[in-house]
Amino acid sequence: MRVAVAGSQGLIGSAVVSALRDSGHTVVRLVRREALSDDEFSWEPETFGVPAESLEGVDAVVSLGGVGVGNQRWTGRFKQELRDSRITPTEVLAEAVARAGVPTFLSASATGFYGNTGEHEATETDPSGEGFLADLVTDWERAATANAGDDTRVVLLRTAPVLSRRGGLLSRLKPVFWLGLGGAIGSGDQYFSWISLPDEVGAIAFLLESSISGPVNLASPGAVPFGEFADVLGHSMHRPTVLKVPGFAAKAVGGEMAEEMILFSQRVAPGVLTDHGFDFRHPRIDAALEYVRG
After folding, report:
1. What is the DSSP letter of 126?
2. What is the CA radius of gyration of the chain?
3. What phi and psi, each to the nearest 5 degrees, are found at residue 44?
4. Which residues pair with 68 in a beta bridge?
5. Which of 92, 282, 261, 138 is CA-nearest to residue 199?
6. Average pLDDT for 101-118
7. Helix (H, G, I), strand (E, B), or coil: what is residue 75?
8. Which of 56, 104, 288, 277 shows the shortest CA–CA distance to 193?
9. 166 has a pLDDT exceeding 90
C-alpha cells in the first residue's frame, strides 16, 4: 500500500510513518516546509494546496495535523488558531483526495466531540456534545466528509489523549508529579479516556487495511475516573498523590481549557474497534503507564 501522511512530524504521525514502513508499506510525507528528501512533498493549504504528483498512485491519505489543544490557555486568538490549523487544511486535503481519486481518507478527530459525558459511556452512535471542543470537532469532521467525494472511504479518528514515552499529555503532568504535587483535579470522579501510543498507531494501521468508514473512537476500553488515573500515575512514578486541586482553582489557572479538558467527564468506549476485533496492547491504565515508564 502507498500511503500519504500529513502531520508526519508530530507525535502520532512520526510513529505512524515508522510503523507503516516497518510493515512494508510505502509512505510519502506531506510537509509544510521545503521538501528535503525523495519521500517528501511540500504543500500549503492557504496558497498552492496539494501538488497533484504527491497523490499519484496513493491508496490512502492519513491527515494528522493540528495545533495541540492543550498548548496554552484558550484565548480568542488561540481558539481561532486551533480552528485554522484544522478546518482549512482538512478541506484542502479532502478536496485533493477527491480530485486524485484516492480510495481511502483517514482524518484526525478527537473524543472532545462528545463534550461532557458524565457517567454515560459514549460510542460512535452518540451525538455531539456541547462546548468549544465539541463544536470544533464537529466542524473538523464536516470538513473531511463534505469534501472527500462520494467514492472515498472516510474514517474519522476520534482520538483520546495519547499516552506516550515522549511528548503528549504526560510530558505536562510528569514534572508536577515528580515534585509530589500530583493528585486529583476537581472531584476526581470525572472520567478520563486515553489511549497508548502503540494502540493509537496500531488502530490507524488496522483501519487502513479494513473496510470500516465513519467515526471511530481511538480510546482504550479502560476509561477511569481522573482520581484513579492520578493515583496510578503517581504509583508508577513512586510519588504521592495526596494533593487535590479544587475545580475552581483549575479553572482560575486554565480557564475554559481546564474545564473542558480536565473537569469535563469523558467516558468514551471504542465500540467500532472492539466490534471489529481490534486487539488493544494496553487496555488498562496500569499497563499503559508501565509501558510509558519503559
Report:
1. S
2. 19
3. -150, 105
4. none
5. 282
6. 98
7. coil
8. 288
9. no
pTM, full prediction: 0.96
- Give the model confidence (pLDDT) of 210-246 as tens digits: 999 999 999 999 999 999 999 999 999 999 998 899 9
Phi, psi of 229 (to 5 degrees): -60, -45
- Report yes or no: 66 and 6 within 8 Å, Cβ to Cβ: no
The set of cell numbers assigned to 229 is 488515573
3-state secondary structure of 44: strand
Look at the block and give the residue holding cell 504521592: 240
Percentage above 90 pLDDT, the chain:
90
Cell of 36: 528535503
Cα 42 to the chain's mean position, in Å?
23
Indicate the pairing of strand 2-6 with strand 26-31.
parallel
Question: What does pLDDT average to over the chain?
Answer: 95
Task: Dig out the grid coordinates for 81 from the structure.
Answer: 488558531
Q: Please, where are the H alpha helices in the chain?
A: 11-22, 76-84, 87-100, 132-145, 168-178, 197-208, 226-237, 247-258, 271-275, 285-293
269 CA to centre of own chain: 15
Domains annotated on the chain, with CATH: 2-163+194-221+267-281 (3.40.50.720)
Parallel, antiparallel or unpaired: strands 224-225 and 60-63: unpaired
What residues contact residue 22 under an 8 Å CB cut-off, 6+ apart? none
Residue 190 near residue 226 (C-beta atoms within 8 A): yes
Number of H helices, E strands in the chain: 10, 11
